[in-house]
Amino acid sequence: MANYTKEDIFKELKDILIEELEINEADINMDANLFSDLDLDSIDAVDIAVRMQKFTDKKLSPEEFKKIKTVGDVVEATYGLIHK
Q1: Which fold would CATH assign to domain 6-82?
Q2: Distance from C-alpha of 31 to C-alpha of 42, rounded to nearest angstrom
């Protein structure tokens, strides 16, 4: 398994947000709220989780998934999974 950095994870997530969900790159930062700032819905959030799972080969638990509110939360949760 690759030893991804938080920067690697952020770049992958940013690519997903731009290419798949058509989010403006200028709006994407670690503090951006997925729902209020980026206007995503719960289905988009699940899609992100599935794509990040494919990227890392690890799965977020439902409890961890519910805590995710910002881009930074996704990065931290994903990073935590691959560095357990």
Answers
A1: 1.10.1200
A2: 18
Nearest to residue 38, comparing CAs of 22, 20, 59?
22
Q: Would you list the domain boundaries of the chain?
A: 6-82
Q: What number of other Cβ atoms are within 10 A of residue 59's Cβ?
A: 13
Quick: pLDDT tens for 16-71.
999 999 999 999 999 999 999 999 999 999 899 889 888 888 888 888 888 899 99
| SS3 of residue 33 by DSSP | strand
Taking the chain, what is the end-to-end CA distance rounded to the nearest angstrom?
13
- In the chain, the amino acid numbered 75 is V
- The dihedrals phi and psi of 70, each to the nearest 5 degrees, come to -120, 170
Indicate the pTM of the whole model. Answer: 0.90
- Residue 10: pLDDT over 90: yes
